[in-house]
Design a protein that fits this description.
single chain, mainly alpha, three-stranded antiparallel sheet, 3 strands, about 60% helix, about 5% strand
């Protein structure tokens, strides 16, 4: 009888239970918004309230929050379902107090008494993020197991995903990244689930499910658009293999008629499932934009507000106040705040009159939708904001600069107004504590990214010479750049300063150049093997080596490497500011690569299994060690300082 500990199903269930526990444990303890929840979770709340302001870009939000229209809405729509489920009793109101207007305290209190305000709990707006975090673990297991035809490699990939800190924080925060990644994983799984990875034939329901999940991913975040390119290139590669290696597939020799019919069917299926279906899902994600009724802050409909001149009266009041407020140093802040409200109200009047003149038709809402898409593009290509925790794309694999999402200082034992601090003081005897949420990677996983690429490059591209082919041209590029910018009569000190500047400026290009060239050489090596019809696994020195990488594993490894580079390297040309958590989609496809290397070590070395067990223990221990630091637990200040292994982490 097979021992229970050798059954992969047992370990999968255990892994999913651990993932569920770590994602949901004390999920709703932090009641306030965490980092970008001020955008995503607040907008999800407005979706639940059925407020049109959340769907347009010109409305001013209340203080300390903002409407999140810079990304597609599906992730926030799903968050709003959690708000409906856990937000509290009562029906959703059709109107809400507009805090951007100048109103007296009596008017505001009167409005609050006349309508029900939905007050969702933090557990509600984070519920589906945590649920999708668990689903992503399962999806990565399915994808990796399907690619490598090995459940244990899939389990190892799921283990790395579960015990890495970056997926953990993204799963416990109401942001759109975890939704996009989960949809991408399921889409890739259905698209690559076929008899053989080189078989071009894909069942119609696989096309359908793959296109649906890709559409949901794009409707959550635009970066998922790269998935269409990955799937399209993969299907094109299988067609090329069909044309040139038909005898290996035991298929008839292709003729002109067969080739035309084959390409016609594949192109048609690709257009329907990877272009048309995602577009339909993307449009459906904006359903509320086309159907949400428009109300003013008093609950009047479009026609009622225009008839009662709600905004005209408000504008007159604002202009009267503006005349009474003098532009002095003492009142300057109030003066400009009132001025902004005048401009906003004038825009509202113009917009409402335009809608009323056109009867607020579907075409008018489509016009708003198209304007929103252009505003989204403009925002991401012209964002010049600054932030203390930004980082460069090439530093992400090094885990150098995390993002500080949240902090809570509990320093006054006599203050019992905050429930978190009160509970902490009761349990530790009044010791001052600090709670943080840092978005960072597990050091024992992230610091193996570049070594893993070195190992894969060595075995997949042939031998160590591939690194010489990559590094020598990149090094020459650095030297030429340095020499070309040398001024006449340069001193030794200025040479040192300029050398440091050149190194800092060229290093990202150096990494980009090396990764692209390595990917190209691996692609050429794998293509040469299959298209030259080499059937043997063990070939002459300089090809894939039997003692570490099997030829059948080259395709899934290459797919994961292409996905990693496709989601990571475009950031090298991004004009906007970047954060460490933008590395979440690419690093998700690193876990199968590392899982494969670890599995081969375990199966190709006498003591390999013990090495892997020790490594897994280190990863799990590191995860448990940093867990309080990335989930907002209150810890004493001296304990908190021990988490900053690097100065840049603080």
């Amino acid at each position: 009888m097979k021992q229970w500990w050798l059954n992969w199903k047992f370990w999968l269930v255990g892994l999913l239970l651990v993932s569920t526990f770590t994602r949901f444990f004390k999920l709703g303890d932090i009641q306030e918004y965490v980092f970008d929840e001020v955008y995503h979770a607040f907008t999800a709340k407005m979706y639940a309230l059925d407020r049109y302001e959340a769907w347009v870009w010109w409305e001013s939000p209340p203080d300390a929050v903002a409407y999140e229209w810079t990304h597609p809405p599906l992730a926030k729509v799903i968050m709003s379902w959690g708000i409906d489920m856990f937000g509290g009793p009562g029906e959703l109101p059709t109107k809400v107090v507009d805090p951007t207007l100048v109103q007296t305290e009596t008017e505001i209190e009167s409005e609050k008494k006349s309508i029900k305000i939905l007050t969702p709990q933090s557990f509600g707006w984070r519920f589906f993020s945590a649920a999708f975090g668990v689903l992503a673990t399962f999806a990565l297991f399915l994808l990796t197991s399907s690619l490598f035809k090995n459940k244990w490699i899939g389990l190892m990939a799921g283990f790395l995903f579960t015990f890495d800190l970056l997926p953990l924080v993204q799963s416990r925060t109401a942001m759109n990244d975890i939704f996009a990644v989960t949809f991408i994983l399921f889409g890739l799984y259905f698209f690559t689930k076929r008899k053989s990875l080189l078989d071009y034939r894909l069942p119609w329901f696989n096309w359908l499910f793959a296109g649906a999940f890709v559409g949901c991913a794009i409707a959550s975040k635009w970066t998922a658009l790269f998935t269409i390119g990955i799937l399209g290139a993969y299907q094109a590669a299988t067609l090329i293999y069909r044309l040139f290696c038909y005898d290996q597939l035991h298929l008839p020799k292709p003729t002109v008629g067969r080739v035309s019919l084959l390409f016609g069917k594949q192109i048609g299926a690709g257009i329907l499932s990877l272009l048309l279906l995602p577009f339909v899902i993307y449009m459906l994600s904006y359903w509320q934009l086309f159907t949400t009724p428009i109300y003013d802050y008093k609950g009047n409909s479009l026609n009622e507000a225009l008839e009662n001149k709600t905004w005209e009266n408000e504008l007159a009041t604002l202009k009267t106040n503006q005349e009474q407020i003098k532009n002095t140093p003492e009142t300057r802040s109030e003066f400009y705040k009132n001025k902004d409200k005048i401009s906003e109200t004038e825009r509202k009047i113009s917009f409402w009159q335009w809608l009323d003149a056109r009867d607020d038709s579907f075409a008018d809402r489509y016009y708003i939708w198209w304007g929103l898409q252009k505003q989204m593009w403009w925002y991401h290509t012209n964002l010049n904001a600054t932030h203390n925790y930004t980082s460069q794309w090439w530093t992400w694999p090094l885990n150098i600069r995390p993002v500080w999402f949240y902090v809570k200082y509990c320093t006054n034992p006599d203050d019992r107004t905050d429930p978190i601090c009160a509970r902490t003081f009761d349990s530790n005897g009044g010791v001052k504590t600090i709670g943080d949420i840092y978005t960072m990677g597990n050091p024992f996983i992230f610091w193996l990214i570049f070594p893993t690429f070195f190992v894969l490059g060595y075995y997949m591209a042939g031998n160590y010479r591939v690194w010489l082919y990559s590094l020598i041209p990149a090094s020459m590029f650095v030297l030429i750049n340095y020499a070309a910018n040398a001024p006449r009569g340069e001193t030794q000190e200025s040479m040192s300063i300029r050398a440091a500047q050149v190194f800092q400026g060229v290093l990202p290009q150096f990494i980009l150049f090396t990764m692209l060239l390595l990917l190209f050489l691996i692609l050429v090596r794998v293509a040469d093997h299959y298209l030259s019809k080499k059937q043997q696994t063990e070939v002459e020195d300089g090809s894939l080596r039997k003692h570490f990488i099997d030829m059948k594993d080259a395709i899934p490894l290459l797919l994961c490497l292409i996905a990693f580079c496709s989601y990571w390297l475009p950031w090298a040309r991004s004009p906007r500011i970047m954060f460490f958590y933008h590395f979440f989609p690419p690093v998700t496809f690193f876990y199968p690569l590392l899982a494969y290397v670890l599995y081969r070590i375990a199966t190709h070395s006498k003591r390999g299994k013990y090495v892997i067990i020790v490594y897994c223990v280190l990863v799990a221990t590191s995860f448990a060690y940093f867990y309080p630091h990335v989930t907002g637990w209150q810890v004493p200040e001296n304990v908190r300082e021990q988490y900053f292994w690097l100065k840049s982490w603080k």
